[in-house]
Amino acid sequence: MIHLLKQPEATRSIVFVRKRERVHELAGWLRQAGINNCYLEGEMVQNKRNEAIKRLTDGRVNVLVATDVAARGIDIPDVSHVFNFDMPRSGDAYLHRIGRTGRAGRKGTAISLVEAHDHLLLGKASRYIDEPLKARVIDELRPTTRAPSEKSNGKPSKKVLAKRAEKKAKEKEKPRVKKTSPRCKKYRQTS
Questions:
Q1: Averaged over 109-122, what is the pLDDT?
Q2: Which of 38, 45, 56, 112 has the greatest number of beta carbons closer than 10 A?
């Protein structure tokens, strides 16, 4: 991420994350790496939000770390790059995020950092915008786990179905104890 943000073409960038806690974590990490930035998240009061946007637009910082609160309804001119540090959960959110760059006929770049467990979210975004997304593996960040199959359709595998059927059969074999309600029990009274 730091390497990408330090590229000369990245003149004004928005880095999107999913959660408010992650905004603070990433903003601090970037600051430690020497990247001056500001942040925007849903719990901020309006004047703080306005100040963060002003700092980006007037050039005091060139990186804004934000949740999806910055994906809609906020016009920040001349955004050269949008980075999805965390993939959004919906195609609609993806479209709104990347729509912050390349506005008013200008060119812009959107880069999504996708981990193996987010691979299905990338497919969801691609289907939503009805356009294939170019994927490139950064050698230094080559995944150590495999991504789910592109063919995955959310249905359980044959192996999972077989295990479920086996478990159900075992449950049927167990003797069932009929439970009685407390009202049916006889109580012995002593006098």
A1: 78
A2: 56
Q: Are 79 and 101 in contact (CB under 8 A)?
A: yes
CA dist list (Å): 36 to 1, 6, 61, 145, 182: 14, 11, 6, 33, 69
Per-residue model confidence (pLDDT) at position 71? 74
In the chain, where the domains are located: 2-152
Query: pLDDT-based confidence at 161, cuts 50/70/90?
Result: confident
Q: Percentage helix, strand, coil, to 5, in the chain?
A: 40, 10, 50
Contact 109, 133 (CB under 8 A): no
Confidence of residue 132 (pLDDT cuts 50, 70, 90): confident
CATH 3.40.50.300 fits 2-152, yes or no: yes
pTM for this model (two decimals): 0.68
pLDDT at 13: 93
Question: Do residues 56 and 38 touch, judged by C-beta distance below 8 A?
Answer: yes
Give the list of residues 6+ apart from residue 19 with CB closer than 8 angstroms, or none.
67, 86
- CA distance linking residue 5 with residue 1, whole number of Å: 6
| C-alpha to C-alpha distances, 19 to 42, 63, 68, nearest whole angstrom | 10, 17, 9
